[in-house]
Task: structure prediction
Amino acid sequence: AHFIEPIVRSRERMAEVTRTFRDFQVTYFAFLALMLVLNVAAAMRTRETDFVFYSFYLVVTALYQFVYTGLFRQHLSPQGGEWLNQLLVFAGLLNFSGLAVFSLRFLRLSHNSPLWSRVIQILLGVLTLQMILVWFIPVSISDPMTHLTVFPLVLLFPGLAVWQWVKRRNDFRFFVLGWAVLFCALLTFNLFAFGIYIEPVLSRNAI
Result:
């Protein structure tokens, strides 16, 4: 909490910031919706399951961002409550699980690296268990647990992707590039969550 600096704004400036935030969110969710439509269409046309898993990731990403940005509270539950904090952690776990499942499938780890595939499956099992526990334990416990579980996966997937790229498939370079960007965002976000000071605008919006 000591990382959050209060800012005093005029009414006009506050209205401008609110409009900017609204426009950004509309653009962001519209982009997600477009990507979802394209991936669903590709899945139906090619019958390739990679598009299905990525579509699921897009859906859970939209859910997480809808909760994280406060839009869920604003439009669906203005009264709030502790359960919204639990929902935020749950949505974060679900979001990263969707990304991990897609990455596991895309990298074909069950065939290319059975050992690492098993390790990641175990970590996914831990994430699934945490998605259940989050409704029964305090957020002050479940949130740090989430970051501790996610952090090894944040390190594993980029490394495995680079290894696969160097060893086998040139088309993995796009996956590596995407993960490199996401890796920096997740690393920044997790370090902030562990109490390491990073510019709030960056750390809170990196993902």
